[in-house]
Design goal:
Elements lengths: L1 H35 L1 H6 L18 E14 H4 L4 E11 L4 E14 L2 E15 L6 E12 L2 E6 L2 E4 L5 E13 L4 E12 L12 E13 L1
Antiparallel strand pairs: 1-2, 1-10, 2-3, 3-4, 4-5, 4-6, 5-8, 6-7, 8-9, 9-10
Length: 221
């Protein structure tokens, strides 16, 4: 199921990318046509200025906020825990018109009967806007992060907690955001996290992944 969802995410990202490229090409074509038009050249006045965007692109801004939605666990996390609604803390820094730095911190405990899965992560990555349409921007985000998963499971007939270790991992996401004004931005995000396997002295290694469907709200300053 996870593989099917990820394939659909990639297909959706490809469609958005092609759509954005086509939109940019058509916009550029119309601009060139307008500039080369004799009638347009006669109507253009030297003192005329370009119209401002409804909400100007914000640069060099810090943004903090939350993402609330469903977390779907897979692998060992799914064997010993259930999906549930969770909240993430999100930070971004707008480095340019197209790229932002993004940090995501999350912590959640997924219980099932006498066992549980505890996932903790700090995901760092680059958010790349596919295209801008007014105040709406679809984007992709990806990078690496630090994860510290732990599970409680039966080992040799005894229910025990796994060792807590910090491991590296990768993450990939597809989202869209709508800038309401200079201070507030809302959006949606599909975010997949894949912590690397955690070896154990007792029992098998902890292996799993998870993805999140989030509604995001950010405040910029």
């Amino acid at each position: 199921m996870i593989k099917i969802i990820l394939k659909n995410i990639m297909k959706l990202g490809l469609v958005i990318l092609i759509t954005g490229s086509s939109f940019s090409f058509l916009h550029a074509k119309e601009s060139i046509k307008a500039l080369t038009s004799k009638k347009k050249a006669q109507e253009t006045k030297p003192e005329a200025s370009a119209p401002e965007a409804r909400i100007p692109n914000a640069l060099k801004l810090h943004s903090v906020g939350v993402g609330v939605g469903q977390t779907f666990v897979h692998g060992d996390f799914d064997n010993y825990g259930e999906d549930k609604i969770t909240a993430d803390i999100i930070y971004t820094y707008s480095a340019s018109h197209s790229f932002d730095f993004m940090a995501n911190f999350h912590y959640s405990k997924h219980e099932f009967r006498q066992t549980y899965s505890l996932i903790r992560g700090l995901a760092l990555g680059i958010k790349a806007k596919i295209f801008n349409f007014d105040s709406f921007s679809p984007y992709v985000v990806g990078g690496f992060g630090f994860y510290s998963p732990r599970i409680k499971r039966p080992v040799s007939g005894v229910v025990r907690e796994s060792e807590t270790k910090v491991v590296f991992g990768d993450h990939l996401g597809l989202g869209a955001e709508l800038r309401l004004n200079r201070m507030f931005t809302t959006g949606v995000l599909i975010h997949y996290h894949n912590p690397f396997d955690v070896k154990q002295e007792v029992g098998s290694e902890v292996e799993g992944s998870y993805f999140k469907l989030l509604i995001t709200v950010l405040y910029s300053f």
